[in-house]
Each structure stands twice: as C-alpha cells, then as structure tokens.
Specification:
This protein is α/β, with parallel strands linked by helices and 411 residues long. It has helices at 18-29, 44-54, 65-69, 88-96, 111-124, 138-149, 166-174, 187-190, 193-203, 246-252, 268-278, 368-380, 392-408; strands at 9-14, 34-40, 61-62, 77-80, 100-103, 128-130, 155-163, 207-215, 295-302, 307-313, 320-327, 330-334, 338-343, 351-354. Helix 5 (111-124) packs antiparallel against helix 13 (392-408).
C-alpha cells in the first residue's frame, strides 16, 4: 500500500469500557494505521488505564463528552462505546463536528433516533459504522458464503437460536447494565439486534413481517425462595443451592468480573466483596429492578417466502448461537464451533468446518472486533468501493425489525 492509503487514522475513544478496549487494541497491534489520541471516560480507573495504555496526554483526557466536543476537532473519527442510552446525543454531536464514527450497537433507543443519526451522517458526509461484529466472524462469513454460492440451491427457511446462557443473563440482563428497558433497550434490541442483522444478511433478503411472544417469567420477587435475602451477602439461607448466586460467580469463582473495577494495588477480594455488599451485582436475582424478558420467540417473513424462526433463551448452561438453514438441495447447520453442510443427493458427502478455536472470551470475537476496525479505517481512507460491511444504512434494517418485534410482542 502507498503512503496515502496507509494514512494513520486518529481516533478519540468515548466510553473506555470493555468494547472500546477490544477495538482500541488495533492501535497497539497496528500503530502505523491507528492512533488513539483522546479519551472521554467518567470512570477514573478506566480513563487512566486507557490514557496510560495509549500514552494520551492529560490535556486530551476528558470526563464528559460535551466537554470533549467543545474542543476543535482533534481526530478523524470516534469510537463511540458508551452505554446504550448514551449513543444518540454524542453521535449527533460528533457528526456535527465532522467526525466519522464507529458506533456500538444498538444505534440508539428509538427508531426515530436511529434514522436521525443516519440522516445526519449523510448530511455531514461522515461514515458511521455499526458494530455488528458477527458479520466479520469467520464462522458466519462461511455461512454467508454457502448461501451466496448457491451450492445448496434456494434458501427456504432458517431456524436460529440465541442461547444467552444463565450466567450472562443474570450478569447483564437481571443484575447488570442491560436489565431495564428505559435505561437501555428491550432485550430484542440490546442482545438480539446481532441475530436480526444476521438473518437479513445471511439470507440476503429483507424482512416483510414479524410476530413475537415473550416475557419476564422467572426473575421476579414472587419466585424468590424462602430464606433468600435482598443480597447474596446478607446471610441468604439458600445461597449455596441457588444456581444464580453472586457469591459463587464473582467471589468464589472470580468470573464475569468485567464490570468490576479493581484498582491497581487493591486486594481483589475486598473490592469484589464491597461491590457485592453495595453494588448492583450482589443483588438477589429475584429482587432486582429488571424488566427485560427472559425468553422470547420471533417469527419472521422475509422476501421470496423465506421464513425465520428465532428464539432467544436465557435458561441454558452455556451461551452461543445455533443456526440451521434449509435449502432446496440440502441444509447447513452450526453451533459456532462446527458448521456442517449436508447434501440431499446420496453421492455427495457432508462437509464439516471447524471453528472451535475462534470463539471465546479473549479472542476478539474470533478476530471480528479487529476486522471491523480494519474495515472502518479503510472506509475512512476511501479504500473501499463497496462501502463498509456494517454501515449505518445497512444496519438500520435490523433495528427497524427489532422495534417492530417489540411492538408486536404478546406479553
Ligand atoms: N458489538 C457487540 O458485540 C457488543 C457486546 C457488548 C456490548 N455492546 C455495546 O457496547 C456498548 C458498551 O458496552 P460495554 O460492555 O463496553 O460497557 P462498559 O460499561 O464496559 O463500557 C461503557 C463505558 O462508557 C462509560 N461511560 C458512561 N457514561 C459516559 C459518558 N457520559 N461519557 C463517556 N463515557 C461514559 C462507562 O463508564 C464505561 O466505562 C453498549 O452500547 C453495549 O450495548 C456491544
């Protein structure tokens, strides 16, 4: 690549939490392509971590996004990874200033806001990429390639299951950040906009109609067992036999600690204990202020009479997606670890593709978090004729479907 094509892109990081750290890692791996030049983060531990990691000078570290946007433009683009309810306003402010944005999903909290951002991006001539990272995952790319190749004939229907997994469910959607619709979004948007996007992208068809059932059935006070207390640390009599114990998950097993800030030099046990005593993650799962669903089913009618059955389930031991696509000449199914292609003709052997190494907590969604950044940087440099794979224009459809589903959901 020539020097112009490889122009280093400068990015300001807004919301230096888990997602930002995954995308920003690209700057450490490819410092000639990307530099993180500013950070906006109210949490001192995370702001300092980001500033130290990327050597950002103090004058470019901010505690709030309005303060940041008062400054003249100091980067080409923004990585916008704030919580769901803080996407719309900073995104609009960034576009006003002419920043390109890599924006975490969901785009915003209402359909109107999603469209506003897309319109504003067009007006300002800015690129907005939405972090539908699964489109970049080698496993889902393989699925898409199989559909596109036509080797199995015409697509007829899809069965797709999003197994949220009980630990992710209680951590994120009962005790944690995505537990309330008013603070974030309905779960069909905050968790499953990825799945809705995949259905449209894999099938290559637009969605015409939806219907849905689902509710919050289990994680409610009326289901709290006798002897349970407000917090798992309050001497709960059933803590040891409760599959949702916060003490077991966070304190004894030291897992799912990604939203706990453990300052350097502090004893992790005492920080975790304090969080469980006072913070959201120590609460009894039956006594939180959660209102998002714990199970939901969706039917979708796509163009060309293609149908989709989609189910989002909290009550599974592990998390993951299972996809089964039926075609006129065969079928393709996978569980993210293996993808099998099976032909109806007896002389054609099954094909099995192994992806077991590419999913997991610490590998950036099988590299997808890094591929999306590479794609975004190329789009900014004008290297992509076809445009960004997950542009806001493309991503609007999954959001439109999610809002439609939520309207139709029979509670
Ligand atoms: N693409 C994916 O696969 C995926 C996965 C998980 C989460 N997400 C989305 O990414 C976003 C961030 O999620 P996360 O898991 O990184 O959460 P997080 O809590 O780890 O990070 C969010 C950060 O934003 C900071 N913040 C809060 N208010 C702010 C403000 N006013 N200005 C600047 N920063 C502020 C928080 O302090 C926090 O550090 C959410 O919208 C979430 O839905 C996407």
């Amino acid at each position: 690549m020539n020097g112009k094509q490889m122009r280093k892109i400068k990015v300001a990081a807004i919301g230096a939490g888990n997602r930002l750290n995954a995308y920003a890692e690209y700057a450490r791996l490819y410092p000639k392509e990307l530099e993180i030049v500013a950070v906006v983060e109210p949490n001192e531990v995370r702001r300092k971590y980001c500033a130290d990691y990327f050597q950002i000078p103090a004058e470019r570290c901010f505690t709030s996004w309005p303060q940041f946007f008062e400054f003249p433009r100091l980067a080409d683009a923004i990585f916008l990874c704030t919580p769901d309810h803080l996407h719309y306003q900073p995104a609009m402010a960034a576009l006003e200033k002419g920043y390109h944005i890599l924006l975490e999903k969901p785009i915003a909290q209402t359909w109107q806001e999603c469209m506003d951002i897309a319109r504003k991006a067009k007006e300002c001539g800015c690129i907005v990429g939405i972090c539908h990272v699964l489109r970049y995952h080698p496993y889902f790319r393989k699925f898409r390639q199989i559909v596109e190749s036509g080797e199995l004939g015409e697509i007829i229907s899809i069965n797709h299951v999003e197994e949220v997994g009980i630990e992710r469910m209680t951590h994120a959607f009962v005790r944690g950040l995505w537990r309330r619709e008013d603070e974030t979004n309905p779960m069909i948007l905050s968790k499953a906009c990825h799945d809705l996007d995949l259905m449209v992208w894999l099938s290559g068809r637009h969605c015409l109609e939806v219907s849905s059932y689902g509710s919050l059935k289990w994680f409610k006070e009326k289901n709290a067992p006798e002897g349970s207390t407000l917090r798992c640390t309050d001497g709960c009599l059933v803590e040891r036999e409760c599959p949702y114990s916060a003490l077991r998950l966070y304190y004894r097993q030291k897992r799912w600690l990604r939203h706990f800030d453990i300052p350097e030099g502090k004893d992790p046990d005492s920080v975790i204990w304090q969080e469980l005593k006072t913070g959201p993650y120590g609460r009894c799962v039956y006594r939180c202020d959660n209102d998002v669903v714990d199970h939901q089913v969706v039917s979708m009618l796509l163009e060309d009479e293609v149908t989709v059955n989609f189910s989002m389930d909290a009550f599974t031991k592990e998390g993951g997606r299972k996809t089964h696509i039926m075609f006129t000449q065969g079928e393709a199914f996978g569980d993210e670890k293996q993808l099998t292609v099976r032909y109806f003709l007896p002389d054609k052997a099954d094909k099995v593709f192994d992806f077991s190494a590419s999913f997991g907590e610490c590998n950036f969604h099988g590299g997808a978090d890094l591929y999306i950044v590479a794609d975004f940087l190329q789009a900014i440099r004008g290297q992509k004729v076809s445009g960004l794979l997950t542009s806001i224009e493309t991503s609007l459809e999954s959001h439109r479907i999610a809002f439609e589903i939520e309207k139709k959901r029979v509670k």
